[in-house]
Amino acid sequence: MSIPSFGLGTFRLTGQAVIDSVKSALELGYRVIDTAQIYQNEADVGQAIAESGVKRDELFITTKIWVENYAADKLILSLRDSLQKLRTDYVDLLLIHWPAPGNGVELPEYMAALAEAKKLGLTRQIGVSNFNIELTRQAIDVVGKGEIATNQIELSPYLQNSKLTAFLKEQGITVTSYMTLAYGKVLKDPVLADIAAKHKATVAQVALAWALQLGYAVIPSSTKRENLASNLLARDLKLDADDMARIAKLERNGREVSPEGLAPIWD
Questions:
Q1: Percent of the chain scored above 70 by pLDDT?
Q2: What's the pTM value of the predicted model, to 2 decimals?
Q3: Residue 134 domain flag
């Protein structure tokens, strides 16, 4: 079981913008595409993939179940709808998007439905997103140790989530970092700019390389072809111990996303 380390995010992209982004990314060599039911772009992503000519078995596609589809009698039906939109028989990774405590569907019910989707061959791997330590423990209790491939969490130089990431590492669960650039806020950071200048790199490349060096998967998005190409180069950027230590000091619990009713109590 493995999660590819570098992919394309599609959050907030719809219509022609996401079609162009996915097509450009695939032309540039990306093979991992991350979407979600709530992004309302699965059909656009499916169209872009179909038109790209890239074979399905070369791709790693992730989607996420939205909270209104967590009930046992809805989750698999909604996934089949997502698969139809994506024009595929299966996804490589299926995630519960938010824990959504108190939304009327308890964790054991939706995690069992997620495991059933895997058993049916509708997804190759399963995981969670935005889960804290306690909820991740509960999810493991339902589906079994070794079954949760990743916890996709907000993570950036400004929000390093050290307790949660240490727990996930201990459990053998891959960390997938979203919003690694903190909505672009880290791009203006003087420390990151200094490290970027030292390596003749961009600040975005430094932030992504930092996450990759910590063993996290990243899924940056962009509508600009040049940025998509530039982001890929983060895979070849090697930061030294001093760079990593300087970035570690940028922690400020700078969380950008915590929707009421969906988010857990954060660690």
A1: 100
A2: 0.97
A3: yes
3-state secondary structure of 57: helix
Residue from 84, 92, 89, 106 nearest 37 by CA: 84
43 lies in some domain: yes
Neighbours of 182 (CB within 10 A): 20
Cα 65 to the center of its chain, rounded Å? 13
Domain, as residue range, for 147 = 8-182+216-222
- The beta-carbon contacts of 140-149 under 8 Å, at least 24 apart in sequence, are 140/171, 142/107, 142/108, 142/111, 142/112, 142/115, 143/111, 143/112, 143/114, 143/115, 145/171, 146/1, 146/172, 147/115, 147/118, 148/173, 149/1, 149/2, 149/3, 149/93, 149/125, 149/173, 149/174
What is the average pLDDT score of the chain?
A: 97
Is there a catalytic annotation at residue 39?
Answer: yes
* CATH code for the domain of 53: 3.20.20.100
Torsion angles phi and psi, residue 10, rounded to 5: -130, 15
Determine which one of 30, 39, 70, 158 is catalytic: 39
Task: Please report whether residue 142 resides in a domain.
Answer: yes
What pLDDT, in 10s, does the model give residues 12-43?
999 999 999 999 999 999 999 999 999 999 99
Give the count of domains, the chain.
1
Statement: residue 1 has pLDDT above 80? no
Residue 99 maps to a domain: yes
pLDDT given for residue 102 in this prediction: 86
Residue from 180, 163, 179 nearest 171 by CA? 163
